Amino acid sequence: MELIMNIVCQVYFDEKSTEKIFELLNLYLPKYEELNLDYTLKEGFKSHYEMIEYFVITDNIRQTFYWNQQHDNPNNLMFGVNITDDNKTVFSLTIDGTISLAEIYLKDLKQKLNSDVGVITFVNPAEYQNGADFKEISAG
Fold first, then answer.
1. What is the chain's Cα-based Rg?
2. What residue ranges in 43-109 does DSSP mark as E strands?
3. Which of 39, 58, 88, 95 is the most exposed place for a label (fewest CB within 10 A)?
4. Which helix (H) or strand (E) holds 131?
5. For residue range 69-97, what is the model confidence (pLDDT) as tens digits?
6. Rounded CA separation 118/10 (Å)
7. Residue 11 DSSP one-character state
8. Which CA distances in Å does 117 have to 5, 50, 127?
9. Is the pTM here over 0.85, yes or no?
10. What's the start-to-end Cα distance of the chain, in Å?
C-alpha cells in the first residue's frame, strides 16, 4: 500500500465545545505540544485552555487551531479545530498513511462526534466559509 503524505480527514460538529476539543485532542495526541499563548491575534490569555475557551464562548467568531506531537506519533498525526463564524466546528486529523488508514480515522472521528458529515482530502483541507457550507460541499 502506498504511503500518502498529508491526508486530511475533516468532520463537522454542530456546536462548539471546549470539553470536546480537549477530549479529542488528548485522545488523538496525548503528548501534544501546547500552543503559544500568542497563537491568535487576540492577546492576554493566561493559559492554553483560556485561549480555546474564548473562541468557543464568543459567538460569530472564526479561528483555527492545529496541534502536533513530535514523539510517539508514527502516522505524523496533526489535530485541527476550525471554529466557524456560524458557531459550528470542523475537526480535522491530518496523517501520513494509506487511504485505508484515513478511512479508519474518518470513521472514528465521525463516531466520536456523532456526525454523518465528513470528507477526506489530500494536502489541503476542504475550503468552506462556515458550517453550513462545509455540510453542503461534503454532501456533493
1. 15
2. 63-67, 78-83, 89-97
3. 58
4. helix 131-139
5. 989 998 999 999 999 999 999 999 999 99
6. 5
7. E
8. 23, 28, 15
9. yes
10. 27
- Please report which helix (H) or strand (E) contains residue 17, including its range: none
Q: What is the pLDDT of residues 20-46, one digit of tens each?
A: 999 999 999 999 999 999 899 888 999
Rounded CA separation 7/31 (Å): 21
Question: What 3-state class would DSSP assign to 52?
Answer: helix
Q: What distance in Å separates the CA atoms of residue 131 and residue 140, rounded to the nearest whole number?
A: 15
Place of cell 464562548: 57
Nearest Cα residue to 64 out of 139, 127, 133: 127
φ, ψ dihedrals at 83, nearest 5°: -85, 120
Place of cell 479529542: 24
Give the residue carrying C-alpha cell 492577546.
Answer: 43
> How many residues does this entry show for the chain?
140
Element (H, E) at 6: strand 4-13
Name the amino acid, one letter, at 52. Answer: I
3-state helix, strand, coil in the chain (%, to 5): 30, 25, 45
